[in-house]
Amino acid sequence: MPTNYLPGSGTGFLAYETHRLALIEIGERIRDLDDTPTLAYAAAEILGRTLQVSRVGYGTIDPVAETITIERDWNAPGIETLAGVLSFREYGSYIEDLKKSETVVVRDVGEDPRTRESTQQLKAISAHSFINMPIIEKGRPVALLYLNHSEARDWTADELALIREVAERTRMATERCRARDDLRELAASLEHQVQVRTEQLRQSQKMEAVGQLTGRFAHDFNNLLTVIRSSCDLLKRPGSSEERRLRLVEAISEAVERGSSLTGQLLSFARRQALNPSALDVNASVMAIGEAMRLQVGPGVDVVIDELEEICSIHADPGQFETALVNLVKNASDAMHGNGKLIINVTRADGIPATRGDPSIDGNFIAISVSDNGSGIAPFCIERIFEPFFTTKSVGQGTGLGLSQVFGFAKQSGGEIRVESCLGQGSAFTLYLPCA
Ligand SMILES: Nc1ncnc2c1ncn2[C@@H]1O[C@H](COP(=O)(O)OP(=O)(O)O)[C@@H](O)[C@H]1O
Ligand SMILES: [Mg+2]
Question: From the UniProt record, which GO molecular function terms apply (predicted)?
Protein backbone atom coordinates (compact mmCIF):
# COMPACT_ATOMS: atom_id res chain seq x y z
CA MET A 1 0.00 0.00 0.00
CA PRO A 2 1.14 3.54 -0.65
CA THR A 3 2.02 5.35 2.52
CA ASN A 4 0.57 8.65 1.37
CA TYR A 5 -1.33 10.13 -1.52
CA LEU A 6 0.11 13.62 -1.63
CA PRO A 7 0.19 15.03 -5.14
CA GLY A 8 3.61 15.69 -6.71
CA SER A 9 6.56 13.74 -7.87
CA GLY A 10 7.22 10.40 -6.19
CA THR A 11 3.96 10.37 -4.31
CA GLY A 12 0.34 9.61 -4.91
CA PHE A 13 -1.38 7.00 -6.96
CA LEU A 14 0.86 7.51 -9.99
CA ALA A 15 3.96 6.89 -7.90
CA TYR A 16 2.36 3.84 -6.37
CA GLU A 17 1.66 2.45 -9.83
CA THR A 18 5.15 3.14 -11.25
CA HIS A 19 6.73 1.63 -8.14
CA ARG A 20 4.57 -1.45 -8.48
CA LEU A 21 5.60 -1.82 -12.12
CA ALA A 22 9.25 -1.32 -11.19
CA LEU A 23 9.03 -4.14 -8.67
CA ILE A 24 7.43 -6.44 -11.21
CA GLU A 25 10.14 -5.60 -13.71
CA ILE A 26 12.88 -6.19 -11.17
CA GLY A 27 11.35 -9.50 -10.17
CA GLU A 28 11.31 -10.64 -13.79
CA ARG A 29 14.78 -9.38 -14.60
CA ILE A 30 16.61 -10.88 -11.64
CA ARG A 31 14.75 -14.16 -11.54
CA ASP A 32 17.03 -15.86 -14.07
CA LEU A 33 20.27 -14.05 -13.25
CA ASP A 34 22.73 -16.01 -11.25
CA ASP A 35 25.60 -13.76 -10.35
CA THR A 36 25.41 -11.03 -7.77
CA PRO A 37 26.94 -8.10 -9.71
CA THR A 38 24.67 -8.63 -12.70
CA LEU A 39 21.45 -8.91 -10.75
CA ALA A 40 22.41 -6.01 -8.47
CA TYR A 41 23.03 -3.92 -11.57
CA ALA A 42 19.65 -4.87 -13.06
CA ALA A 43 17.88 -3.81 -9.87
CA ALA A 44 19.93 -0.60 -9.69
CA GLU A 45 19.10 0.33 -13.25
CA ILE A 46 15.35 -0.07 -12.81
CA LEU A 47 15.40 1.72 -9.48
CA GLY A 48 17.48 4.58 -10.93
CA ARG A 49 15.20 5.07 -13.90
CA THR A 50 12.04 4.84 -11.81
CA LEU A 51 13.16 7.35 -9.21
CA GLN A 52 15.05 9.51 -11.73
CA VAL A 53 18.18 9.81 -9.63
CA SER A 54 21.83 10.21 -10.69
CA ARG A 55 23.21 6.92 -9.48
CA VAL A 56 22.16 3.66 -7.89
CA GLY A 57 24.57 1.00 -6.76
CA TYR A 58 25.11 -2.00 -4.60
CA GLY A 59 28.28 -2.78 -2.75
CA THR A 60 29.58 -5.07 -0.04
CA ILE A 61 30.69 -3.38 3.12
CA ASP A 62 33.50 -4.13 5.47
CA PRO A 63 32.48 -2.68 8.87
CA VAL A 64 35.99 -3.06 10.32
CA ALA A 65 37.91 -1.39 7.49
CA GLU A 66 34.90 0.97 7.04
CA THR A 67 35.00 0.51 3.28
CA ILE A 68 32.55 -0.35 0.54
CA THR A 69 33.46 -2.41 -2.51
CA ILE A 70 31.42 -1.64 -5.61
CA GLU A 71 31.74 -3.86 -8.64
CA ARG A 72 29.40 -1.99 -10.92
CA ASP A 73 26.73 0.71 -10.47
CA TRP A 74 24.08 2.27 -12.59
CA ASN A 75 24.69 5.92 -13.56
CA ALA A 76 22.46 8.45 -15.24
CA PRO A 77 23.93 10.01 -18.40
CA GLY A 78 26.92 12.22 -17.53
CA ILE A 79 27.43 10.70 -14.09
CA GLU A 80 30.62 8.82 -13.32
CA THR A 81 30.75 5.38 -11.79
CA LEU A 82 31.86 4.80 -8.21
CA ALA A 83 33.11 1.29 -8.95
CA GLY A 84 36.05 0.43 -6.75
CA VAL A 85 36.78 0.50 -3.04
CA LEU A 86 35.66 3.62 -1.18
CA SER A 87 36.37 4.65 2.38
CA PHE A 88 33.25 5.88 4.24
CA ARG A 89 35.15 8.22 6.52
CA GLU A 90 36.17 10.38 3.55
CA TYR A 91 32.51 11.27 3.07
CA GLY A 92 31.31 11.93 6.61
CA SER A 93 30.43 10.15 9.81
CA TYR A 94 27.23 8.35 8.76
CA ILE A 95 29.10 5.00 8.76
CA GLU A 96 28.24 4.97 12.49
CA ASP A 97 24.56 4.70 11.59
CA LEU A 98 25.18 2.08 8.94
CA LYS A 99 27.05 -0.01 11.50
CA LYS A 100 23.94 0.14 13.65
CA SER A 101 22.01 -1.17 10.63
CA GLU A 102 20.18 2.13 10.22
CA THR A 103 19.26 3.59 6.87
CA VAL A 104 20.86 6.97 6.21
CA VAL A 105 18.60 9.42 4.38
CA VAL A 106 20.19 12.77 3.51
CA ARG A 107 18.15 15.43 1.72
CA ASP A 108 21.08 17.84 1.31
CA VAL A 109 24.62 16.93 2.36
CA GLY A 110 25.33 20.59 3.22
CA GLU A 111 22.58 20.58 5.82
CA ASP A 112 23.10 17.23 7.49
CA PRO A 113 25.48 17.29 10.48
CA ARG A 114 26.92 13.92 9.46
CA THR A 115 28.04 15.16 6.05
CA ARG A 116 28.38 18.91 6.43
CA GLU A 117 32.18 18.70 6.77
CA SER A 118 32.55 16.60 3.64
CA THR A 119 30.12 18.42 1.36
CA GLN A 120 32.85 19.07 -1.23
CA GLN A 121 33.84 15.44 -1.45
CA LEU A 122 30.23 14.32 -1.76
CA LYS A 123 29.35 16.88 -4.38
CA ALA A 124 32.44 15.79 -6.31
CA ILE A 125 30.90 12.34 -6.66
CA SER A 126 27.46 13.72 -7.60
CA ALA A 127 26.02 12.89 -4.19
CA HIS A 128 24.38 16.13 -3.12
CA SER A 129 21.64 14.04 -1.70
CA PHE A 130 21.62 10.30 -0.95
CA ILE A 131 20.16 7.25 0.63
CA ASN A 132 22.35 4.51 2.07
CA MET A 133 20.33 1.46 2.97
CA PRO A 134 22.28 -1.30 4.71
CA ILE A 135 21.48 -4.91 3.90
CA ILE A 136 21.48 -6.99 7.04
CA GLU A 137 22.43 -10.61 7.36
CA LYS A 138 22.49 -12.38 10.72
CA GLY A 139 22.06 -9.01 12.40
CA ARG A 140 25.09 -7.48 10.71
CA PRO A 141 25.25 -5.06 7.78
CA VAL A 142 26.96 -6.87 4.90
CA ALA A 143 26.02 -4.81 1.89
CA LEU A 144 24.64 -1.45 0.96
CA LEU A 145 22.11 -0.23 -1.54
CA TYR A 146 22.82 3.43 -2.27
CA LEU A 147 21.06 6.10 -4.28
CA ASN A 148 22.85 9.36 -5.10
CA HIS A 149 21.46 12.47 -6.66
CA SER A 150 23.45 15.40 -7.93
CA GLU A 151 21.00 17.92 -6.45
CA ALA A 152 19.33 18.24 -3.09
CA ARG A 153 16.24 16.04 -3.11
CA ASP A 154 13.36 15.00 -0.89
CA TRP A 155 12.91 11.28 -0.36
CA THR A 156 9.28 10.32 0.17
CA ALA A 157 8.05 7.53 2.35
CA ASP A 158 6.81 5.75 -0.81
CA GLU A 159 10.24 5.92 -2.37
CA LEU A 160 11.83 4.62 0.80
CA ALA A 161 9.38 1.76 0.87
CA LEU A 162 10.25 0.93 -2.73
CA ILE A 163 13.98 1.10 -2.04
CA ARG A 164 13.55 -1.12 1.00
CA GLU A 165 11.64 -3.65 -1.07
CA VAL A 166 14.31 -3.63 -3.80
CA ALA A 167 17.04 -4.03 -1.18
CA GLU A 168 15.25 -7.01 0.30
CA ARG A 169 14.76 -8.67 -3.07
CA THR A 170 18.37 -8.07 -4.04
CA ARG A 171 19.46 -9.57 -0.75
CA MET A 172 17.34 -12.68 -1.28
CA ALA A 173 18.58 -13.09 -4.83
CA THR A 174 22.22 -12.75 -3.87
CA GLU A 175 21.68 -15.17 -1.01
CA ARG A 176 20.23 -17.61 -3.52
CA CYS A 177 23.35 -17.15 -5.69
CA ARG A 178 25.62 -17.73 -2.75
CA ALA A 179 23.74 -20.83 -1.61
CA ARG A 180 24.06 -22.22 -5.12
CA ASP A 181 27.78 -21.36 -5.28
CA ASP A 182 28.31 -22.97 -1.88
CA LEU A 183 26.51 -26.05 -3.09
CA ARG A 184 28.65 -26.20 -6.23
CA GLU A 185 31.77 -25.78 -4.15
CA LEU A 186 30.64 -28.52 -1.81
CA ALA A 187 29.90 -30.84 -4.71
CA ALA A 188 33.31 -30.13 -6.23
CA SER A 189 35.05 -30.71 -2.93
CA LEU A 190 33.15 -33.97 -2.36
CA GLU A 191 34.11 -35.13 -5.81
CA HIS A 192 37.71 -34.26 -5.08
CA GLN A 193 37.59 -36.13 -1.76
CA VAL A 194 36.16 -39.21 -3.45
CA GLN A 195 38.95 -39.07 -6.02
CA VAL A 196 41.58 -38.79 -3.32
CA ARG A 197 40.11 -41.69 -1.34
CA THR A 198 39.79 -43.88 -4.42
CA GLU A 199 43.39 -43.19 -5.31
CA GLN A 200 44.44 -44.01 -1.73
CA LEU A 201 42.49 -47.25 -1.84
CA ARG A 202 43.95 -48.21 -5.21
CA GLN A 203 47.41 -47.44 -3.88
CA SER A 204 46.91 -49.52 -0.75
CA GLN A 205 45.52 -52.44 -2.76
CA LYS A 206 48.51 -52.22 -5.04
CA MET A 207 50.85 -52.16 -2.07
CA GLU A 208 49.10 -55.18 -0.60
CA ALA A 209 49.50 -57.10 -3.86
CA VAL A 210 53.16 -56.14 -4.08
CA GLY A 211 53.60 -57.19 -0.45
CA GLN A 212 52.06 -60.60 -1.08
CA LEU A 213 54.10 -61.05 -4.20
CA THR A 214 57.44 -60.18 -2.64
CA GLY A 215 56.54 -62.29 0.41
CA ARG A 216 55.78 -65.34 -1.69
CA PHE A 217 58.83 -64.84 -3.85
CA ALA A 218 61.15 -64.43 -0.86
CA HIS A 219 59.61 -67.51 0.75
CA ASP A 220 60.04 -69.71 -2.34
CA PHE A 221 63.52 -68.43 -2.95
CA ASN A 222 64.52 -68.99 0.66
CA ASN A 223 63.45 -72.61 0.42
CA LEU A 224 65.77 -73.07 -2.52
CA LEU A 225 68.60 -71.27 -0.73
CA THR A 226 68.10 -73.52 2.30
CA VAL A 227 68.59 -76.57 0.11
CA ILE A 228 71.71 -75.06 -1.42
CA ARG A 229 73.13 -73.90 1.90
CA SER A 230 72.66 -77.19 3.71
CA SER A 231 74.02 -79.13 0.74
CA CYS A 232 77.11 -76.91 0.75
CA ASP A 233 77.53 -77.38 4.50
CA LEU A 234 77.37 -81.15 4.08
CA LEU A 235 79.79 -81.02 1.17
CA LYS A 236 82.32 -79.18 3.29
CA ARG A 237 82.36 -81.99 5.87
CA PRO A 238 85.20 -84.43 5.31
CA GLY A 239 84.67 -88.11 4.84
CA SER A 240 81.55 -88.19 2.66
CA SER A 241 81.44 -90.87 0.04
CA GLU A 242 81.78 -89.88 -3.61
CA GLU A 243 78.22 -91.06 -4.19
CA ARG A 244 76.83 -88.87 -1.41
CA ARG A 245 78.78 -85.88 -2.68
CA LEU A 246 77.32 -86.41 -6.11
CA ARG A 247 73.78 -86.48 -4.69
CA LEU A 248 74.38 -83.20 -2.87
CA VAL A 249 75.73 -81.54 -6.00
CA GLU A 250 72.66 -82.88 -7.82
CA ALA A 251 70.38 -81.27 -5.18
CA ILE A 252 72.18 -77.95 -5.55
CA SER A 253 71.96 -77.96 -9.28
CA GLU A 254 68.24 -78.87 -9.12
CA ALA A 255 67.57 -76.01 -6.70
CA VAL A 256 69.43 -73.62 -8.98
CA GLU A 257 67.34 -74.88 -11.89
CA ARG A 258 64.10 -74.28 -9.97
CA GLY A 259 65.33 -70.87 -8.90
CA SER A 260 66.02 -69.88 -12.45
CA SER A 261 62.63 -71.15 -13.59
CA LEU A 262 61.04 -69.10 -10.78
CA THR A 263 62.76 -65.92 -11.87
CA GLY A 264 62.00 -66.83 -15.49
CA GLN A 265 58.28 -67.01 -14.78
CA LEU A 266 58.36 -63.73 -12.90
CA LEU A 267 60.26 -62.17 -15.77
CA SER A 268 57.54 -63.47 -18.09
CA PHE A 269 54.88 -61.80 -16.03
CA ALA A 270 56.88 -58.60 -15.94
CA ARG A 271 57.21 -58.95 -19.72
CA ARG A 272 60.98 -58.80 -19.33
CA GLN A 273 61.61 -62.32 -20.53
CA ALA A 274 64.06 -62.30 -23.40
CA LEU A 275 61.84 -63.63 -26.19
CA ASN A 276 63.04 -65.17 -29.38
CA PRO A 277 60.04 -64.95 -31.62
CA SER A 278 59.93 -66.79 -34.90
CA ALA A 279 57.25 -67.94 -37.32
CA LEU A 280 55.71 -70.96 -35.68
CA ASP A 281 53.40 -73.53 -37.27
CA VAL A 282 50.56 -73.56 -34.75
CA ASN A 283 49.01 -76.85 -35.81
CA ALA A 284 52.27 -78.77 -35.55
CA SER A 285 53.15 -77.17 -32.28
CA VAL A 286 49.72 -77.70 -30.68
CA MET A 287 49.62 -81.32 -31.87
CA ALA A 288 53.04 -82.05 -30.41
CA ILE A 289 52.25 -80.47 -27.06
CA GLY A 290 48.76 -81.99 -26.99
CA GLU A 291 50.10 -85.50 -27.55
CA ALA A 292 52.67 -85.08 -24.82
CA MET A 293 49.97 -83.76 -22.46
CA ARG A 294 47.62 -86.63 -23.24
CA LEU A 295 50.03 -88.90 -21.41
CA GLN A 296 50.31 -86.50 -18.50
CA VAL A 297 46.63 -85.92 -17.73
CA GLY A 298 45.83 -89.57 -17.19
CA PRO A 299 43.25 -91.91 -18.70
CA GLY A 300 40.19 -90.27 -17.09
CA VAL A 301 40.63 -87.09 -19.12
CA ASP A 302 39.55 -87.14 -22.73
CA VAL A 303 41.82 -84.81 -24.73
CA VAL A 304 40.39 -83.50 -27.99
CA ILE A 305 42.61 -81.47 -30.32
CA ASP A 306 40.73 -79.42 -32.83
CA GLU A 307 43.33 -78.00 -35.21
CA LEU A 308 42.88 -75.59 -38.06
CA GLU A 309 42.47 -77.16 -41.48
CA GLU A 310 44.85 -74.80 -43.23
CA ILE A 311 48.43 -74.25 -42.21
CA CYS A 312 48.89 -71.11 -40.20
CA SER A 313 51.83 -69.48 -38.51
CA ILE A 314 52.08 -67.23 -35.51
CA HIS A 315 54.90 -64.96 -34.59
CA ALA A 316 55.99 -66.02 -31.11
CA ASP A 317 58.75 -67.53 -29.01
CA PRO A 318 58.40 -71.33 -29.40
CA GLY A 319 59.68 -72.18 -25.92
CA GLN A 320 57.42 -69.71 -24.16
CA PHE A 321 54.47 -70.71 -26.33
CA GLU A 322 54.97 -74.31 -25.29
CA THR A 323 55.24 -73.35 -21.62
CA ALA A 324 52.04 -71.27 -21.86
CA LEU A 325 50.09 -74.10 -23.46
CA VAL A 326 51.39 -76.61 -20.92
CA ASN A 327 50.39 -74.25 -18.10
CA LEU A 328 46.85 -73.94 -19.50
CA VAL A 329 46.45 -77.68 -20.05
CA LYS A 330 47.79 -78.47 -16.60
CA ASN A 331 45.32 -76.08 -14.99
CA ALA A 332 42.44 -77.55 -16.99
CA SER A 333 43.46 -81.03 -15.96
CA ASP A 334 43.80 -79.95 -12.29
CA ALA A 335 40.30 -78.44 -12.43
CA MET A 336 38.83 -81.77 -13.56
CA HIS A 337 40.52 -83.88 -10.87
CA GLY A 338 41.38 -86.66 -13.29
CA ASN A 339 37.98 -86.91 -14.97
CA GLY A 340 36.50 -84.86 -17.79
CA LYS A 341 36.94 -83.53 -21.27
CA LEU A 342 39.69 -81.18 -22.35
CA ILE A 343 39.45 -79.47 -25.72
CA ILE A 344 42.27 -77.63 -27.43
CA ASN A 345 40.91 -75.63 -30.27
CA VAL A 346 42.75 -73.53 -32.89
CA THR A 347 40.85 -70.92 -34.92
CA ARG A 348 41.46 -67.75 -36.84
CA ALA A 349 40.19 -64.53 -35.28
CA ASP A 350 39.96 -61.13 -36.92
CA GLY A 351 40.13 -59.39 -33.57
CA ILE A 352 40.04 -59.87 -29.83
CA PRO A 353 36.65 -59.39 -28.16
CA ALA A 354 36.22 -56.91 -25.32
CA THR A 355 35.87 -58.18 -21.76
CA ARG A 356 35.40 -56.60 -18.35
CA GLY A 357 37.51 -53.47 -18.47
CA ASP A 358 39.47 -54.45 -21.62
CA PRO A 359 38.46 -53.02 -25.00
CA SER A 360 38.30 -55.06 -28.18
CA ILE A 361 41.37 -55.14 -30.44
CA ASP A 362 41.36 -55.37 -34.24
CA GLY A 363 43.88 -57.45 -36.14
CA ASN A 364 44.66 -60.90 -37.49
CA PHE A 365 45.10 -63.38 -34.70
CA ILE A 366 45.21 -67.08 -34.11
CA ALA A 367 43.09 -68.07 -31.13
CA ILE A 368 44.21 -71.14 -29.22
CA SER A 369 41.65 -72.06 -26.61
CA VAL A 370 41.89 -74.63 -23.85
CA SER A 371 38.54 -75.56 -22.33
CA ASP A 372 37.57 -77.97 -19.62
CA ASN A 373 34.42 -79.10 -17.85
CA GLY A 374 36.04 -78.85 -14.46
CA SER A 375 35.36 -76.85 -11.31
CA GLY A 376 35.12 -73.40 -12.91
CA ILE A 377 36.40 -70.23 -11.27
CA ALA A 378 34.60 -68.26 -8.58
CA PRO A 379 33.80 -64.66 -9.65
CA PHE A 380 35.84 -63.19 -6.79
CA CYS A 381 38.90 -65.18 -7.91
CA ILE A 382 38.73 -64.46 -11.61
CA GLU A 383 40.08 -60.93 -11.17
CA ARG A 384 43.19 -62.30 -9.53
CA ILE A 385 44.12 -65.52 -11.31
CA PHE A 386 46.76 -63.83 -13.47
CA GLU A 387 48.55 -62.37 -10.45
CA PRO A 388 51.87 -64.04 -9.75
CA PHE A 389 51.60 -66.42 -6.77
CA PHE A 390 47.82 -66.36 -6.77
CA THR A 391 46.75 -69.96 -6.26
CA THR A 392 43.77 -71.77 -4.76
CA LYS A 393 45.72 -75.00 -4.67
CA SER A 394 47.33 -76.44 -1.57
CA VAL A 395 51.02 -76.06 -0.78
CA GLY A 396 53.09 -78.21 -3.12
CA GLN A 397 50.21 -78.38 -5.62
CA GLY A 398 50.26 -74.86 -6.99
CA THR A 399 52.82 -72.10 -7.35
CA GLY A 400 50.45 -69.48 -8.74
CA LEU A 401 52.95 -68.75 -11.48
CA GLY A 402 51.34 -70.59 -14.41
CA LEU A 403 48.80 -68.02 -15.53
CA SER A 404 51.09 -65.10 -14.80
CA GLN A 405 53.50 -66.61 -17.32
CA VAL A 406 50.67 -67.03 -19.85
CA PHE A 407 49.54 -63.45 -19.26
CA GLY A 408 53.02 -61.95 -19.59
CA PHE A 409 53.85 -64.05 -22.65
CA ALA A 410 50.57 -63.10 -24.40
CA LYS A 411 51.07 -59.40 -23.75
CA GLN A 412 54.73 -59.39 -24.65
CA SER A 413 53.93 -61.19 -27.91
CA GLY A 414 51.36 -58.58 -28.93
CA GLY A 415 48.42 -60.79 -28.01
CA GLU A 416 45.99 -61.33 -25.16
CA ILE A 417 44.68 -64.01 -22.87
CA ARG A 418 40.92 -64.11 -22.22
CA VAL A 419 38.99 -66.30 -19.84
CA GLU A 420 35.40 -67.41 -19.59
CA SER A 421 34.31 -69.53 -16.70
CA CYS A 422 31.20 -70.81 -15.00
CA LEU A 423 31.47 -72.10 -11.47
CA GLY A 424 30.77 -75.84 -11.37
CA GLN A 425 30.66 -76.13 -15.17
CA GLY A 426 34.10 -75.37 -16.51
CA SER A 427 36.41 -72.77 -17.99
CA ALA A 428 37.81 -71.72 -21.32
CA PHE A 429 41.11 -69.87 -21.65
CA THR A 430 41.80 -68.38 -25.07
CA LEU A 431 45.24 -67.27 -26.07
CA TYR A 432 45.27 -64.78 -28.94
CA LEU A 433 48.57 -64.45 -30.80
CA PRO A 434 49.26 -62.36 -33.88
CA CYS A 435 49.47 -64.15 -37.21
CA ALA A 436 52.93 -64.26 -38.72
N1 LIG B 1 41.03 -74.23 -15.91
C2 LIG B 1 40.86 -73.75 -14.66
N3 LIG B 1 39.76 -74.09 -13.96
C4 LIG B 1 39.57 -73.62 -12.71
N5 LIG B 1 40.42 -72.79 -12.08
C6 LIG B 1 41.53 -72.44 -12.72
C7 LIG B 1 41.81 -72.87 -14.04
N8 LIG B 1 42.96 -72.32 -14.44
C9 LIG B 1 43.40 -71.56 -13.40
N10 LIG B 1 42.54 -71.63 -12.37
C11 LIG B 1 42.65 -70.92 -11.08
O12 LIG B 1 43.68 -69.96 -11.20
C13 LIG B 1 44.65 -70.13 -10.17
C14 LIG B 1 46.00 -69.69 -10.67
O15 LIG B 1 46.47 -70.55 -11.69
P16 LIG B 1 48.01 -70.62 -11.96
O17 LIG B 1 48.54 -69.24 -12.11
O18 LIG B 1 48.25 -71.57 -13.07
O19 LIG B 1 48.57 -71.16 -10.60
P20 LIG B 1 48.46 -72.63 -9.97
O21 LIG B 1 47.99 -73.55 -11.05
O22 LIG B 1 49.84 -72.94 -9.52
O23 LIG B 1 47.49 -72.49 -8.83
C24 LIG B 1 44.52 -71.57 -9.81
O25 LIG B 1 44.98 -71.81 -8.50
C26 LIG B 1 43.04 -71.83 -9.95
O27 LIG B 1 42.35 -71.39 -8.81
MG1 LIG C 1 48.83 -73.62 -12.94
Answer: ATP binding
Q: What is the pLDDT of residue 11?
A: 61
Q: At residue 137, what are phi and psi to the nearest 5 degrees?
A: -130, 130
The closest residue, in CA terms, to atom 9 on ligand 1 is 331
- Please indicate whether residue 390, judged by its CB atom, sits closer than 6 Å to ligand 1: yes
Amino acid code (one letter) for 205: Q
Q: What average pLDDT does this structure show over 309-331?
A: 92
* Architecture (CATH level 2) of domain 205-269: Orthogonal Bundle (1.10)
**Ranges of CATH 3.30.565.10 domains, the chain:** 278-434
Q: Where are the alpha helices (DSSP H) in 237-354?
A: 242-269, 282-297, 318-336
Ligand 1 mean position to 300 CA, how many Å? 20
Q: Where in the chain is the domain with CATH 1.10.287?
A: 205-269
Please give the pLDDT value at position 34.
78
CA of 127 to the centre of ligand 1 (A): 87
Chain-centroid distance of CA 258 in Å reads 44
CATH of domain 278-434: 3.30.565.10
Q: What is the pLDDT of residues 41-97, one digit of tens each?
A: 999 999 999 999 999 999 999 989 999 999 999 999 999 999 999 999 999 999 999
Cβ(385) – ligand 1 distance below 6 Å: yes
CATH number belonging to domain 12-183: 3.30.450.40
CATH 3.30.450.40 location in the chain: 12-183
pLDDT band (50, 70, 90) for residue 10: low
In this structure, the number of other CB atoms found within 10 A of the CB of residue 342 comes to 25
